[in-house]
Amino acid sequence: MAIMHPVFRESDGERIPGESRPAFIRNGGTYFLTSLKIYADGLVDCWGLVDLAGFADKLASGWVATEFEAGAEASVHGLGEWRFADPVSYTDADCLLAEVRDTVEELNGRPTSSDRCLAALDAYLADPDEARRAALRAAYLEIPWTQRVYLLGDMDSKDWPVQVLAFGPGGTLTGMFEGMTVTERQHGQALEYFARWTAQRESTRADTGLDGRWEPRAESVVLEQRYFRNDGTRPEPPILALRNDFPAAVNVDGAVYPTVLHAYRAASVTDPAAQEAIRTAENLGQVGLLAREAPRRPDWAVARTAVMLRLLRAKFEQHPDLAEVLLSTGDRTILYDDFGSPRYWGRTGAEGRNWAGRLLEVVRAELCAARAGV
Can you give the pLDDT at residue 270? Predict the structure, then answer.
């Protein structure tokens, strides 16, 4: 089991609790031993904040590594480096993802896979039948295999008693008991074990439970930087249509712009010819270049936030389908990746003011208020 350490990050003035654990990140052919930071809002910092779906992608790509090749270079920044001779991994991608999901649940005081298995165990012990045995078996197999031996908190018996009940007489055990066939005698021994275990647990139940350190949080939404096709198709996932560079035309004072970003860049300059060139630019690379070369409006650094809010209101007023996508985020924090202005419009790791995400939350609140008639 990985050693966990409490961490936190600041997000829009809030302190988000988390846990840190060691992990390897593979970058440029080298495996770097680093800290994987898992936060209560469902974001994971693996050299960049991603949501749980993004973390699954990082595992699938090998960026977060659970397999190592003999002879590959490894490094601990500032301490040393080495090469793997005969590497052995104690986890795999699916297991690490499951552990991370459990950490998010635990940080929010919600049941982990182990908690759900114990609930299924209680149900089976209270009224044993094959349907409840099947539910117990399914719940047991959902636990990351690295954590199953810790389920009962008994390092002598480990998870043997719960496996025996879950797989039943004639069933085949897994894990460190791989291949063992359950006998009727062993099944009776497991039932006797749980009679003692249940009595002991009831006597100490008052010492367990949540400590109230923080309130549960909804998982944050991460709007990752993407390049969109200008053919009107929705991106995958559809939530990325909330981005300012998504091709959703906006009409501003009678002028139609291909994206919010076109309209924003045009508003930043004073030359009418440059504004028109930006409006009709075929791609966002040209938009950025034209905006940088044209004279900028005075006090743009102060005015830009209000301009962006106006443009976002226009986008979601003129595109009701996209307004529904925004409303579907509920009360979740929206974090915005922005390569052009990561410290103002976006957020990089624990840094950045995330104004693009915050303004989306303002528009979302306005849409909710209008729908409620407030």
Answer: 95
